[in-house]
Amino acid sequence: MTPDKMIRMANQIATFFDTQPGDAAGSVADHLAKFWEPRMKAQLFAHAAAGGEGLRDSVREAVARMQAAA
């Protein structure tokens, strides 16, 4: 998938959970873990490791939590 599409998809998930009560980053991480296939997650992790340009803060935090849990 193109980086722009991956960023857009991750940010759409975050935009939803950022408006909900509770832990947005935790909800984003849970959604990504359940519904994104391994190659998509690997691409997101690589993008975040390279600086994460364009990602919402809750996506960055979700990636950090997912990597810490792995």
How is this structure best summarized?
This protein is mainly α and about 70 residues long. The protein has helices at about 5-20, 25-35, 40-50, 55-70.
SSE arrangement:
Layout: H1 3-18, H2 24-35, H3 38-49, H4 57-69
Describe the structure.
Helix 1 crosses helix 2 and helix 2 (about 25-35) packs across helix 4. The mean pLDDT is about 95. The chain is globular. With about 70 residues, the chain is an all-alpha fold. It contains four helices and no strands. It has one domain.
Distance between the termini: 23 Å
Q: Could you name the ranges where pLDDT drops below 50 across 5 or more consecutive residues?
A: none
Number of helices: 4
Largest sheet: none
- Category from helices, strands and their pairing: mainly alpha
Computed over alpha carbons, the radius of gyration is 11 Å
Q: If you average the pLDDT, what whole number results?
A: 97
What general form does the structure show? globular
Name the helicity range. over 70%
What is the chain-wise order of helices and strands? HHHH
Question: Hey, roughly how much beta strand do the residues contain?
Answer: under 5%
Highlighted features:
70 residues; mainly alpha; globular
